[in-house]
Amino acid sequence: MRILITGAKGQLGMALQSTLTEHHLIPTDLPEFDIVERRNVFALFEEARPELVIHCAAYTNVDGCARDPELAHRVNTLGTQNIALACQKADAPMIHISTNEVFSGDDPAGYEEWMTLSPHNPYGRSKAAAEVAVQTLLNRYYIVRTAWLYSAGGRNFIHAILRAAREKGAIRVVTDEVGNPTNAADLAEAIGRLIATEHYGIYHFVNSGACSRWAFANEILRLAGMEHVINTPILGSEFTRLSWPPPFCALHNRNGAAIGITLRSWQEALADLFQDGVEA
Ligand SMILES: NC(=O)c1ccc[n+]([C@@H]2O[C@H](COP(=O)([O-])OP(=O)(O)OC[C@H]3O[C@@H](n4cnc5c(N)ncnc54)[C@H](OP(=O)(O)O)[C@@H]3O)[C@@H](O)[C@H]2O)c1
Question: Looking at ligand 1, which atom is closest to the CA of residue 35?
């Protein structure tokens, strides 16, 4: 299948290229391909003639989105709308990658696929609006929500923790942000299985189980052999951030499980990454 990937240089884009090797992939990213430039999007689709599009491109800097919500809207919402319109014209189904931050995180029980969107920061709002655009414009789409993505080469929480631990010898991490750490390679593998089903709909693909950022950091330190580093539990209110993440935002994968697609536990997936080697 001819699959066009947006955001191909990002964490998930790279993992998809390593995983979907039996397909003809068309990787795209900045600076050559900007999803905001509608005419270029249409021109590329005309030339590439994709049979499926996996839309990973996004402005993922959550604090940056709070600083510049207009930019977040332009890239995450209008950029996604451009991709959905191009898919409509090309009659190609679309996989839109979304986030747990489309939910408010006020419910300690976590979130299932059908629940009403309730974003409370500019990143979450721009991604929720993107979901609406996809659902409004297309009949054949998958919305895949994920959370706390990491990969060996990406900019992510693991690298931030290891760097801080090495540089400061002690870290302070919040206990009141709960989510599902997710290995980008596992997500790519689940997406590979999903596209073979043509079972369109909304999915929550995250490694199973949830934890706080503090517990996630403890596991990272343990796997890195840095248990001696003191990890002090704190509350989000003890420091200032431009954008508040949703506090209890675990996702439950019910729709994927119903068609046989589940992801292993977050601890196993994280241990696998460390086995392959992680650099701070
Ligand atoms: N990372 C997470 O924890 C997380 C959690 C939940 C959901 N998600 C979603 O999962 C998807 C993939 O995330 P990721 O971690 O792979 O993100 P990532 O590593 O930040 O990659 C995103 C890619 O999109 C590119 N991009 C940004 N603006 C663009 C534009 N206007 N046109 C074309 N490309 C553009 C980025 O380029 P530059 O680097 O040059 O800006 C980057 O290569 C995103 O939709 C994200 O919202 C991520």
Answer: 32
